[in-house]
Specification:
266 residues, mainly alpha, 2 domains
Length: 266
């Protein structure tokens, strides 16, 4: 998974497509384009009996360019990074910053794709994709794009509660301004703790608990495990934020109602 920080300081977690998924999507796209080209050529052969050789060559060349370059470029531009193969494999092409591709990206990918896919029978695209971390082909490198997975399994929500033995301590604890990175690490640890090896889980819990202890006072009761400490701090912090937001929303509603009752003056 790759992390991208947007201009608004929002962290985007994007999953690059695997090599196998990209290869399957590419094969489906190639088959569609080739079938379209064959259909057009058959139609030209049936309807072009009266054309001379030069005109027929021009039509064949135009058909090749239309099916193998113009159609892929138009489809990716209009669908913002999708195609038939990508729809089937659950992928989408995006920019390096995570945004939707535009016409210039699709043109670069389409022109380069004609070289690396059709003229080299996919050999150049295969070689380039094998030697980079996001399985990007040459067209992606030149255009500044890569493929991500659109269909990502949804993680089940992990309920977080203050352990009963720590409720009195958590209610009286002074929880200061916890850095966003530390709070995010604690939340991610709680979601993934059940899948971690015991040794790694214990080490990471102790490390995050040490970071949190600099912003929480007083210290928890003696004998509190790092896992329980993390759960108590995260759950109590969430509950306090929810209470604060609920009270603020209620005050805003009351002020709005009073303003609506005020007489209007000219």
């Amino acid at each position: 998974m790759s992390s991208i920080v947007t201009g608004e300081a929002v962290v985007l977690e994007l999953r690059p497509a695997s090599f196998a998924a990209r290869a399957l999507g590419l094969v489906l796209d190639v088959l569609f384009n080739v079938v379209l080209l064959v259909g057009i050529l058959i139609g030209l052969a049936a309807a072009g009996a009266d054309l001379d050789e030069a005109a027929m060559r021009a039509l064949v060349l135009s058909s090749v360019v239309f099916c193998l370059v113009i159609v892929p470029v138009a489809v990716e531009t209009l669908s913002r990074g999708l195609s038939l193969g990508k729809l089937a494999t659950g992928l989408r092409v995006v920019r390096d910053d995570g945004g939707a591709i535009r016409f210039r990206h699709a043109v670069i990918r389409g022109l380069t794709g004609f070289l690396e896919i059709y003229l080299t029978f996919g050999g150049l695209a295969l070689c380039v994709a094998l030697f980079n971390d996001r399985s990007r082909r040459l067209g992606d490198l030149l255009a500044g794009t890569y493929a991500i997975r659109r269909r990502v399994p949804v993680e089940q929500a992990v309920p977080v509660f203050v352990p009963p033995k720590l409720r009195a301590w958590a209610a009286a604890a002074d929880i200061g301004r916890i850095p966003d990175a530390t709070a995010r690490r604690a939340s991610q640890f709680i979601r993934q703790a059940a899948r971690m090896a015991p040794l790694s889980r214990a080490g990471m819990a102790a490390s995050i608990a040490t970071e949190l202890s600099a912003h929480v006072a007083p210290a928890p009761p003696a004998g509190t495990s790092p896992d329980d400490y993390l759960a108590a701090v995260v759950a109590e912090r969430r509950n306090r934020e929810l209470t604060r937001l609920t009270q603020q929303r209620r005050r805003n509603t009351e002020v709005g109602e009073r303003l609506q009752r005020l007489p209007f003056s000219s």
